[in-house]
């Protein structure tokens, strides 16, 4: 299929949206699907909707659709909660698998929330557990037989640097450690093959490249041979073997179902389920090839036009996710000026201008235009307007 | 104000909905609010919506509105996740406050997920921690100086039996224990005064009597004097003091904000926020008074018409939540037959027929009609149709 498919999205006229890596745009059909979930399903079926509308099964049904995009076999992915919660679940289950080891190993390119959740878990467990954080390049060498769990995000949220999933998973297994991959910046952006990688756990979110909407549910993958073995630390009733038996004690459900916790967010799930239809008309292989080409073009255009910016993403597309980042000391106000001109990227402290490229709705002409506008802002110091310095930094 | 206010809800014609204690019906205005969140906010603002549409502040803003309904001061309630996750957060924080004590005390009238979450937490902590579960009537006597945390649901999900929040909280404090209340069947159903109760933590859901929709976010309350002191075990980035500084280590946010974890479910939050407008036109005092009267009437009607059913809810309205439950060995198929006739209650294993009364949209005529239909089903053994026996039990 030829990309882009701008016709599949509702994006405001004139906007060049280079922030699908933070929040994907609204796919067509989602508004109608959510309206149906509210009016016909909730309004019309009320409590019966748990069966008649398939709400109860949705986390597994949608999980399979996400799983299909990341090389997971059917029945190995389930949706729910937020990515931070899913990280906690994977880490807790991983630690329980290696009771004689005390170290969670991660890197300083990981998304901070993953490190925070590890801190919280370690604090609960006490007894000498600790989090060891090294440079991304030093991970492989740091895996030794003290390490219970290696937890990494495949694609660095700031730089776009991409880990070698298979190689690091092999190294982890070689030292007897459990491997947890965070696919926040991978799912929907590039080809992931969890089955080939052979990691024990993977987690991710769906509001970025999977376009599930603000606050879309997260997912967790458990390797099929472990799904009936792992111990859920967040032992919620919908992960129970028989939730509606209302037993007094917890018995984990069959397979991946045990990683469910509480009542699923039905309206968010409806949005996500519809958004995933985008993947019926394209392949991850095509998206990835187009993404590398767009990122290469943006690097070339920006380096030619804006010499003040320093590339901090890998130059080699194979070592990069679907984003390009530049360091620039005036990056914050420059990004605000760019946003005001309709080119939406984002800023990550301390000095990173970050641009995501989603070939579903971005093409080469958009890339050249974005670089041209950026050049104009820099050449004319348009970012120097105080309005851009004082704007909130929440995005 | 005169109740009911059926005009505030979209309920299918002819349905008598006695299951607002499981999933509240669709309030008018919610469909439009959700559509606005999808189309104008997500579609139109994309990533900018986190600021421009107030998404980032929503958990605290909506939390204050819920807090107002349960006697919590501004800034002491925040929304997010599911009730099971909020239970975990409260328990973990409570245990951390009493490091020399090892017991979580609860009762067998608690919702099972609360007990399961306690089991999971205890398993993580190891070191002699344990969950002690007693009969509801035995709780007060079981509170001794081994108890770190007393965790109870105010209103029993099966029987509607209501604990005395103030008395039990005082007993807990008298023994040096921390008190956690689950308000799942209280918030929106009856008057709760958390400030007067003086408990350390409270949690609850919003898809029952607060009509937030299927999968609506949960809430957690932390007593104001503790909000800057408690230790978040689920240390997610949105509970960090400066989430967008992307520090490598966790520093809890100010006050109740530290109980946030991951990205909030913006679409669900929009539905809930609109649903809460119902409370602008009524008071919890009026709702409670009407609810007790409706429940009394239903008990009288059913006991007169259906002698095969045994009341298992307290007969005294002051000791009961907003529901009435009867034990009946054929309760499951009888409830299915009732649902087929348009009277929606639900069934809870092993033999409980459960009816919730929400005076916002239920009146005395509905109560009498529901009892009349129930009588017809029992008198004519309509529940004996095999279709009712084989139907799924998920509701």
TrEMBL record, chains A, B:
**Species this protein is from:** Yoonia sediminilitoris
Known catalytic reactions: L-kynurenine + H2O = anthranilate + L-alanine + H(+); 3-hydroxy-L-kynurenine + H2O = 3-hydroxyanthranilate + L-alanine + H(+)
Give the protein's biological function.
Catalyzes the cleavage of L-kynurenine (L-Kyn) and L-3-hydroxykynurenine (L-3OHKyn) into anthranilic acid (AA) and 3-hydroxyanthranilic acid (3-OHAA), respectively.
**Domain of life (superkingdom):** Bacteria
Indicate what this protein is called per its UniProt record: Kynureninase
Q: Which InterPro entries match?
A: Kynureninase (IPR010111), PyrdxlP-dep_Trfase (IPR015424), PyrdxlP-dep_Trfase_major (IPR015421), PyrdxlP-dep_Trfase_small (IPR015422)
Extract one GO cellular component term from the record. Answer: cytoplasm
Q: Name one GO molecular function term.
A: kynureninase activity
Source taxonomy? Bacteria, Pseudomonadati, Pseudomonadota, Alphaproteobacteria, Rhodobacterales
Q: How does it assemble?
A: Homodimer.
Q: In which pathway does it act?
A: Amino-acid degradation; L-kynurenine degradation; L-alanine and anthranilate from L-kynurenine: step 1/1; Cofactor biosynthesis; NAD(+) biosynthesis; quinolinate from L-kynurenine: step 2/3
Tell me its EC number(s), please: 3.7.1.3
């Amino acid at each position: 299929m030829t990309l882009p498919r701008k016709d599949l999205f509702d994006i405001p006229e004139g906007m060049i949206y280079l922030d699908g890596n933070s929040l994907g745009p609204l796919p067509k059909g989602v508004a109608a699907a959510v309206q149906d979930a509210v009016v016909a399903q909730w309004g019309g079926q009320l409590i019966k909707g748990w069966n008649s509308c398939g709400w109860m099964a949705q986390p597994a049904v949608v999980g399979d659709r996400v799983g299909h995009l990341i090389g997971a076999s059917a029945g190995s992915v389930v949706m729910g909660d937020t990515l931070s919660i899913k990280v906690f679940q994977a880490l807790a289950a991983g630690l329980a698998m290696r009771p004689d080891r005390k170290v969670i190993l991660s890197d300083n390119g990981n998304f901070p929330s993953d490190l925070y959740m590890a801190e919280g878990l370690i604090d609960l467990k006490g007894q000498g557990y600790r989090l060891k954080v090294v440079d991304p390049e030093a991970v492989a060498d740091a895996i030794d037989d003290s390490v219970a769990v290696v937890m990494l995000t495949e694609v660095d949220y700031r730089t776009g640097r991409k880990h070698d999933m298979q190689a690091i998973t092999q190294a982890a297994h070689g030292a007897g450690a459990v491997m947890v991959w965070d696919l926040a910046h991978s799912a929907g952006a590039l080809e992931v093959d969890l089955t080939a990688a052979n990691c024990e756990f993977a987690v991710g979110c769906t509001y970025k490249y999977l376009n599930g909407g603000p606050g879309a549910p997260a997912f967790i993958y458990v390797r099929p041979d472990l799904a009936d073995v792992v111990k859920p630390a967040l032992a919620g009733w919908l992960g129970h073997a028989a939730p509606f038996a209302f037993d007094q004690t917890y018995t984990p459900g069959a397979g991946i179902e045990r990683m469910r916790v509480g009542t699923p967010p039905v309206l968010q799930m409806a949005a996500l389920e519809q958004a995933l239809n985008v993947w019926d008309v394209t392949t991850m292989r095509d998206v990835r090839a187009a993404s590398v080409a767009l990122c290469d073009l943006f690097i070339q255009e920006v380096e030619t036009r804006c010499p003040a910016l320093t590339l901090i993403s890998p130059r080699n597309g194979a070592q990069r996710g679907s984003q390009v980042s530049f360091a620039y000391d005036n990056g914050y106000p420059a990004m605000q000026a760019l946003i005001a001109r309709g080119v939406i990227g984002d800023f990550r402290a301390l000095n990173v201008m970050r641009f995501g490229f989603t070939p579903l709705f971005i093409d080469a002409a958009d890339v050249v235009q974005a670089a041209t506008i950026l050049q104009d802002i820099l050449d004319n110091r348009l970012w120097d307007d105080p309005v851009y310095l004082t704007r909130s930094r929440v995005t």
